[in-house]
Design brief:
The complex is a heterotrimer.
Chain A (H helix, E strand, L loop, with lengths): L1 E2 L9 E6 L2 E6 L4 H7 L6 E2 L6 E2 L12 E4 L2 E5 L10 E4 L13
Parallel strand pairs in A: 2-8
Antiparallel strand pairs in A: 2-3, 4-5, 6-7, 6-8
Chain B lengths: L2 E8 L3 H11 L5 E4 L13 H6 L8 H15 L3 E3 L3 E7 L4 E7 L2 E12 L3 E3 L12 E3 H11 L2 E2 L3 E6 L1 H12 L6 E5 L5 H4 L3 H4 L3 H17 L2 E13 L3 E8 L4 E5 L2 E6 L1 E3 L2 H5 L4 E4 L4 E4 L13 E3 L9 H18 L10 H18 L14 E3 L4 E2 H9 L5 H8 L12 H12 L18 E2 H5 L12
Parallel strand pairs in B: 1-2, 1-6, 2-3, 6-19, 8-15, 10-11, 10-15, 11-12
Antiparallel strand pairs in B: 4-5, 5-6, 7-16, 12-13, 13-14, 17-18, 20-21
Helix pairs in contact in B: 1-3, 1-10, 5-8, 10-11, 12-14
Chain C lengths: L4 E7 L3 H12 L4 E4 L15 E2 L9 H25 L10 E5 L2 H17 L8 E4 H7 L11 E5 L3 E2 L2 H14 L3 E3 L4 E7 L2 E6 L4 E9 L5 H7 L7 E12 L11 E3 L4 E4 L14 H14 L7 E12 L6 E4 L6 E5 L7 H14 L25
Parallel strand pairs in C: 1-2, 1-11, 2-8, 11-17
Antiparallel strand pairs in C: 3-7, 4-6, 5-6, 9-10, 10-11, 12-14, 12-15, 13-14, 16-17
Classes of the chains: A mainly beta, B alpha/beta, C alpha+beta.
């Protein structure tokens, strides 16, 4: 879907983990764009139909970019700027209320 | 201690920034809530960083105009609150409260006057396969380019209509990534209606000229341009694999694709004004609903809230700076502060208004001339197809609210941002009524999702729930 | 002016009107259901979905019995609907809990149980207190906050999907030959020969031998035209709805329940604010705070939407069913538990309307019970 022609360097580079993969993103971009640029095919599975979905709008309107960011599920990844050390997972299942509070 | 300001501005795009600057310079205490991390809104997205990395040239003059606007805004004494999500607005004795979420908690900002400048978003254009990963709006690709420096993966198809489509194609071309296929959706019937707007549109001549220039430059580099497209379809398994089209002349075509960008114009972001129960009016020429407001932007049925920019009606960024300034000045005047309005505000507005009817006539939404098949998903959140909506209508559902109760269209996280227009159009089609006589589904706070923990912070008085 | 003749006109297509019309059509009566347009108040659309027995009818045993009977025939009612329409209401009866989050709550719940048992005479009131451990056993794998001390449990309590119920009743009604007329806002009822006619704001006229006024907040005004007094008032309830989650809550817990679609509904308020059905920040905050106290793991769950509905509240909280004395054949039916009572409404109310046959003690629900109280019909 998206490709990164130039790797960011120095202060413009932000390193985070997306779906277990170490990724370098550009400071100022969102987790959603970084995820697609890293090659993620789907940010989530639609809860009703189970089909894979990926962002459509990148501006907070379509809600397809719901991902688990630093342990918190169903966050709109397009409204979260990338930050050093973040951990991001696609939202492939509905969240649950764990006994341990994993959520 | 209550969080209280003279003027709260929602949105930091051209209109929001203009409103904030003019009212703050009039000596008022102004706060700006922005869901982005940096000012600029959508059109000037990330402009400071793009300028700093030397990429302004990719995006053209309209984008570059954002550099000064953002610099002015930054230099003004305004309480700028980025990464804030507005969830609702409540009236109070004087002015009202904006309920919003920031830093993990919901809070209440009291303001004597409110200026809503939440802009616009791309008109959803449902077609078979549009929910496949790999299908995005043209605006989404612009954001990816401006913020991440990212380009669409090839093979890349760009489909849609409107001046922004050509702008985007030009930007990708400048970045060395012109689309492989450009599909121009065209209303076969439109040639006849454009004529009568010609003379008035001369006032906005330069916008038209821009469009023509891009068109010519484009055809040099785009792999293949197909005009007169009236049907679009995307296919694939887990993600987009190919795009199929048909033209009014009956020609069919297809292309393999990894990315399909679509654009069908933009519509005002009216989620908040609708949730506030402000009356909205359908503008048939623009094919969009906007909140009813006075010429200064004061919203109908309120005495303390204003709307400005594309949120009030699509007129583009230059008009947005003008309507933002006017709303800011009006709000300041209401608080007995004198704002300095520059004397070209009305001229900017006049030009934008003059060219709009021609643009609207040249580029009606795709829905006006393409059919939505029963199998097309129209509510993405709840995976509901057009056929199900048509069935509910046949069974007696009267309109969008009943359709929502029957089928759950509009109950997902997007709260109808993606489906409300389509549901209204299907209802009007089934009942043979005009869209102007159809209301969109009702909205309530929270207009954006908020966690239970964030929402609990609104219980600041620790009140007990009123119980039976 | 459109002339139309019918056995029964049911004014109102909500939970109550829908159930009664469905029952009438199935009983073979030629029935016309009149409903307003897309933007009406529609209390039926803001329904929590409980099919609830515990605590019902304090002060009116008949209501407890009526609710209990509802729960006993609800499964059959739901199965019939599914068979004729294909729509599944999602009804389940796992029992229900009213959670106690303070010592006061515990005492209040205990007091209600004692009073209801005494009121039932022979002691037959099936609800009892359970402790924290028993709550955890009923809702395994879920963490309750320390404030949750106890609960009152009733095995007859359950829940259903109210929107599916409404859809099913409408579909079942039409399948059984009922006629549905939307965009019909009734403004007057007049005598018409041997029967009656209703006039709508849209300029239509419909005639019938009998009329059932079941239009929620519209009842008091219409009832007054036919010599009936309806002392109901609006009472707002706000609800927050979460995103879809894995199934976690097998039991409805009074003001927290998980729907068949996976979202959790969090409630609820009881506010006297007239006809204002908006949601407010302070009540939303209070609902969220309470929910987080009860189930701390809800903290990071997203609330995606909310609704506010205006309950149709009789003075004692119990249903009012009555027939006009001066306009025999014109009835009114009102209550604030339309989902719970849908089954008995469909089963018994048609017999009353068509043949004057009523269940035992039905007269207890008459509006006359308010005589001598501030809610009595105005005299003169």
């Amino acid at each position: 879907m998206l490709r990164r022609p130039v790797e960011p360097e120095g202060n413009a580079a932000v390193r985070l983990t997306i779906a277990g993969q170490s990724v370098t993103a550009r400071r100022g971009e969102s987790v959603a764009t970084a995820a697609l640029a890293a090659g993620l095919q789907a940010t989530r599975n639609a809860p009703v139909s189970g089909e894979p979905r990926a962002p459509y709008c990148f501006m907070g309107v379509c809600f397809e970019c719901l991902m688990t960011i630093d342990g918190q599920p169903n966050r709109q990844a397009c409204l979260v700027p990338v930050q050093e050390g973040m951990t991001v997972e696609p939202q492939m299942q509905r969240p649950s209320l764990g006994v341990s509070g994993d959520g | 201690m209550a969080d209280s300001v003279d003027i709260a501005v929602l949105g930091a795009g051209p209109a929001g920034m203009a409103a904030a600057v003019i009212s703050a310079n009039a000596g008022l205490k102004v706060a700006v809530l922005d869901d982005q991390a940096v000012p600029g809104g959508q059109i000037w997205r990330n402009v400071e960083a793009v300028a700093a990395r030397g990429d302004l040239g990719l995006f053209g003059d309209d984008y570059a105009a954002g550099v000064d606007a953002v610099a002015d805004f930054r230099a003004t004494d305004v309480d700028y609150r980025p990464l804030s999500r507005v969830i609702g607005v409540e009236g109070a004795d004087i002015g009202g409260d904006v309920l919003y979420v920031r830093d993990g908690k919901a809070g209440r900002l009291h303001a004597k006057r409110l200026i809503i400048a939440l802009g616009a978003y791309e008109r959803p254009m449902p077609f078979l396969g549009w929910t496949l990963p790999g299908v995005m709006t043209a605006g989404a690709a612009q954001i990816a380019l401006k913020t991440g420096g990212l380009l669409p993966k090839r093979p890349f198809v760009l489909a849609g209509q409107g001046p922004l489509l050509l702008l985007l194609a030009a930007q990708f071309r400048a970045a060395g990534a012109a689309p492989d296929v450009l599909l121009r959706l065209d209303d076969p019937g439109r040639k006849w209606s454009a004529g009568k707007h010609g003379l008035r549109a001369l006032a906005g001549f330069s916008d038209l000229l821009k469009g023509l220039k891009w068109q010519r430059a484009l055809s040099d580099d785009v792999g293949k341009t197909i005009a007169g497209v009236t049907q679009l379809e995307a296919s694939g398994g887990d993600r987009l694999a190919a795009v199929h089209w048909q033209t009014a002349d009956g020609m069919a075509g297809e292309a393999k694709a990894a990315t399909l960008l679509v654009h069908d114009g933009v519509i005002p972001n009216a989620q908040l004004t609708r949730a506030m129960r402000i009356p909205h009016r359908y503008d048939a020429a623009a094919a969009a609903w906007s909140p009813e407001a006075s010429t200064d932007g004061q919203l109908a049925d309120t005495d303390w809230a204003y709307v400005a920019g594309d949120n009030a009606g699509i007129l583009g960024w230059a008009a947005a700076t003008a309507t933002g300034a006017k709303a800011g000045a009006a709000a300041a005047a209401a608080l007995s502060a004198k704002a300095a309005v520059s004397n070209d505000v009305d001229r900017r507005l006049g030009r934008a208004r003059a060219v709009r009817p021609l643009l609207d006539a040249l580029y009606p939404p795709a829905q006006a001339f393409t059919a939505i098949s029963d199998d097309t998903v129209i509510c993405r959140c709840e995976a509901i197809k057009a056929g199900a909506v048509r069935e509910a209508l046949a069974m007696g559902a009267q309109g969008p609210n009943q359709i929502k109760a029957f089928l759950r269209t509009g109950m997902g996280p997007c709260q109808g941002r993606m489906c409300a227009y389509t549901v209204a159009a299907l209802a009007a089609e089934a009942q043979g009524t005009a869209l102007a006589d159809t209301d969109l589904m009702r909205l309530r706070m929270p207009i954006s999702p908020v966690t239970v923990a964030e929402m609990a912070h609104l219980n600041e008085t620790d009140m007990d729930l009123p119980t039976a | 002016m459109i002339m139309d003749t019918t056995d029964v006109i049911v004014i109102g297509g909500g939970m109550v009107g829908g159930a009664i019309a469905y029952g009438l059509a199935r009983a073979g009566a030629d029935t016309l259901m009149l409903d307003e347009g897309d933007d009406a108040i529609r209390t039926a659309r803001g329904n929590f979905g409980l099919v609830w027995v515990q605590t019902k009818g304090r002060g009116l045993q008949r209501y407890q019995d009526w609710s209990r009977e509802s729960s006993e025939i609800w499964t059959e009612f739901s199965d019939d609907l599914q068979e004729s329409t294909g729509v599944n209401t999602g009804y389940e009866k796992p029992g229900g809990l009213t959670l106690c989050t303070s010592e006061e709550d515990v005492r209040a719940s205990e007091e209600i149980i004692t009073a209801m048992k005494a009121q039932a005479g022979n002691g037959q009131y099936d609800a009892w207190m359970i402790d924290r451990q028993e709550i955890e056993a009923l809702v395994p794998g879920v963490r309750f906050g320390p404030d949750v001390l106890a609960a009152s449990f009733c095995p007859h309590d359950g829940h259903a999907n109210p929107l599916k119920l409404l859809r099913a009743m409408h579909a079942g009604f039409q399948k059984a030959g009922g006629r549905y007329q939307p965009n019909a806002s009734v403004v007057d009822i007049v005598r018409d020969g041997e029967g009656y006619a209703v006039l709508t704001a849209e300029g239509a006229r419909y005639g019938a031998a009998k009329i059932v006024i079941a239009c929620g907040h519209g009842i008091p005004e219409l009832a007054a035209k036919v010599g009936l007094h309806c002392p109901t008032r609006p009472q707002r309830g706000q609800i927050l709805v979460t995103e879809r989650l894995q199934p976690m809550l097998p039991l409805p817990m009074g003001s927290i329940r998980q729907t068949d679609e996976g979202s959790i509904m969090l409630g609820v308020s009881h506010e006297e604010v007239g006809f204002d059905d908006r949601n407010t920040g302070d009540v939303s905050g209070a609902i969220a705070a309470r929910a987080a106290r009860i189930l701390p793991d809800l903290a990071n769950v997203n609330i995606v939407r909310s609704w506010g509905a205006l309950r149709i509240m009789p003075p004692d909280g119990c249903p009012i069913y009555d027939e006009s004395e001066t306009w025999p054949g014109v009835f009114m039916t009102t209550n604030h538990s339309g989902v719970t009572l849908a089954s008995v409404h469909a089963k018994h109310i048609p017999d009353w309307i068509l043949r004057g046959e009523t269940p035992v003690g039905f007269q207890d629900f008459s509006v006359k019970r308010f005589e001598g109280t501030p809610h009595a019909a105005p005299t003169g």
